[in-house]
From TrEMBL:
Organism of this sequence: Parasphingopyxis lamellibrachiae
InterPro entries: KR_dom, NAD(P)-bd_dom_sf, SDR_fam
Entry keywords, A to Z: Oxidoreductase
Protein's recorded name: NADP-dependent 3-hydroxy acid dehydrogenase YdfG
GO molecular function annotation: oxidoreductase activity
PANTHER family, sorted: OXIDOREDUCTASE SADH-RELATED, RETINOL DEHYDROGENASE-RELATED
Amino acid sequence: MADKSIFITGGASGIGRAVAHYFGERGWFVGLADINEPGMEETAAGLPAGQFSIHRLDVTDREQWKQVVAAFGERTGGRMDVLFNNAGIGLGGPLQEMTDDEIDRSIAINFTGVVSGTRAAFEMLRDTPDSCILNTSSAAGIYGAAGLVVYSGTKFAVRALTEGLDIEFKPYGIRSRALMPSFIETPILDGGLTGGNSSVRDMIAEAGMEITPVSAVAEAAWEAVHGEKLHTTVGKTAKKLAFAARWMPGRLRKSLGMARTVPE
């Protein structure tokens, strides 16, 4: 049995897969959770034999959370060094053009799922010395993103949750950290935008912004778990946004407004 363990939601692809491999290569036991079972099997194929577990999990289902956390604990002797709340969806488009279902799903998966996971794993984290909650926020959680306001709102909420939990859970020996990546090379970029035929990837290309390799997020996750920084930005866009939001918010707001036009 590995000395340390990490439980990863959204472990079937993208950031979750990259982080699973990065920690697994360093001797950690990795718990993979997702609704995409074939994807988790593909992730597991890159992990050391016997050093992982697979759990089908819909992060919006609180009862499933309780069951999979208990199952993970059976494999690790009740230990969870890191809870990586990573599962998310990237639905976007103008607010007035999004459907009720799209809005509700975004909030349920991107934010409520993080809250539910944290509550379900609390006792195991509390009973593991120097444990850490790592949440995937976003560069969209640094400054509101027009055309992605619901997504951006959920990522601001994750950021706030992370900040509050780092204070609230400190007496229990649980640290809280947030990853704030910009646009990362993952399948989420191929998601469509409400009200049009373009994808998030198309929007990025049109805006002339860069796409950061997913390996950079895996490295940042390791540094976040082992470091003192509350928020870890990943990618040039995220770092530029963080700087501008702090030192020149008025100019940032103006530039973002000029980049948006109202459809005719």
